[in-house]
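Please decode residue identities from the backbone states below.
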């Protein structure tokens, strides 16, 4: 606690009785830009705090702290003594500083909870759509175990122990704990979930170090994620299944959204945000202005997809959405104009039943698109670019198992004929 600054005219009740009542407070400067004021009224006074920052807007801000103990004894809340008023003012100065600069005054250890708070604030400032999901994960899995630990005192063993406990813990479904993993697949899935959370936690720690909040990354630098947890994407729709899926769409607007997903591999959120100007008919590309990672990309379209988007955007103004919600929701008599996540899930379930294929979510159309490219021999770097990945790591992990046959077929088809070996003159015997 900071030392109480002395002022003979404000310190005691008897001293303040000698002051003349006035609107302008009697000020005591505590530190540069920070002052405590006493406003004398006819029936007692009030403590006022003043914060000054010439770069802020407004440069001066004021806060009423509570009544002075001129009539009643101080209780530290509504009625404050001179010392209590100084302490209340200093606490408010921290919030005023944060509002003026965006930075927080750190007192005591910089804990894991502080690391998470600053990281989530950074994600929100950068428009990360996953910030809310990260917040839930951190609050459920990180803060209960590590939140009060000083970030500078984190050790490799402590983090590895936390990861092991996380991998052995039950999965959560809508905030409710399930049963602990038992089968090999359940154990793999829990380790994969632990890896995803550790990736975000590690990013939060790295950001804190970059900002000078943690002196060293020695505590987590050598912590390794679980190996062998990534499961290859094994399910994708055949061409015939894709046709059945589209034909089973219950409305024209949803049919067009399905077609767009199969033609581009774009996420549903990306498709919903598309407007007519995002389609470049001259170059046959579709512009995704903002993806999950916050980066933009251009998707190259096939001639079939190009003709589809040309038909969808014909006659539309540049800023008109390409895939609006036209048919009404089952709960409403009128269309809201946009697609909700719950409505997409419901309609996908209905379409799958009509097409007689196993249930799937809209996002799996993206896997079908990527698998089709890989099976056709498209280089993984191009597949990654179409999907919006910064590297081929994700594509290799999820679709690399499809590469061998596609690679062999592409080599046989595209490699030049050298003509440097004569065909054998001996016929091969067929046994049996």
């Amino acid at each position: 606690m900071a030392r109480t600054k002395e002022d003979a005219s404000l310190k005691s009740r008897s001293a303040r009785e000698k002051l003349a009542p006035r609107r302008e407070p009697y000020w005591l400067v505590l530190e540069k830009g920070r002052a405590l004021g006493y406003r004398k009224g006819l029936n007692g006074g009030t403590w006022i705090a003043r914060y000054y920052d010439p770069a802020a807007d407004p440069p001066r801000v004021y806060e009423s702290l509570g009544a002075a103990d001129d009539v009643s004894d101080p209780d530290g809340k509504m009625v404050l003594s001179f010392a209590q008023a100084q302490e209340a003012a200093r606490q408010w100065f921290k919030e005023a500083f944060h509002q003026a600069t965006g930075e927080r005054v750190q007192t005591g250890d910089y804990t894991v909870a502080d690391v998470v708070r600053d990281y989530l604030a950074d994600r929100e400032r950068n428009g990360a759509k996953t910030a809310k999901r990260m917040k839930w994960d951190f609050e459920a899995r990180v803060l209960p175990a590590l939140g009060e630990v000083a970030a500078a005192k984190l050790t490799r063993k402590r983090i590895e122990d936390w990861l092991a406990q996380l991998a052995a813990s039950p999965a959560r479904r809508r905030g409710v704990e399930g049963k602990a993993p038992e089968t090999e697949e359940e154990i793999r899935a829990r380790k994969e979930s632990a890896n995803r959370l550790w990736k975000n936690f590690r990013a939060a720690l790295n950001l804190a170090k970059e900002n000078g909040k943690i002196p060293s990354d020695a505590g987590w630098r050598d912590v390794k994620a679980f190996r062998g947890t990534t499961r290859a994407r094994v399910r994708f729709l055949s061409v015939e299944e894709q046709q059945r899926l589209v034909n089973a769409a219950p409305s024209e607007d949803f049919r067009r959204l399905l077609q767009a997903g199969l033609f581009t591999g774009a996420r549903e959120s990306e498709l919903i945000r598309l407007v007519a100007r995002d389609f470049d008919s001259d170059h046959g590309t579709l512009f995704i202005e903002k993806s999950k990672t916050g980066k933009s990309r251009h998707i190259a379209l096939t001639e079939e997809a190009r003709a589809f988007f040309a038909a969808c955007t014909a006659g539309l103004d540049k800023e008109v959405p390409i895939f609006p919600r036209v048919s009404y929701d089952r709960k409403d008599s009128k269309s809201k104009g946009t697609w909700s996540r719950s409505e997409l899930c419901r309609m996908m379930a209905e379409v799958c039943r009509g097409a007689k294929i196993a249930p799937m979510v809209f996002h799996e159309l993206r896997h079908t698109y990527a698998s089709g490219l890989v099976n056709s021999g498209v280089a993984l770097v191009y597949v990654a670019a179409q999907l919006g990945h910064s590297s081929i790591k994700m594509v290799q992990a999820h679709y690399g198992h499809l590469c061998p046959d596609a690679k062999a077929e592409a080599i046989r088809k595209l490699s030049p004929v050298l003509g440097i070996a004569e065909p054998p003159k001996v016929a091969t015997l067929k046994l049996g």
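Observation: The first strand starts at residue 26 and ends at 31.
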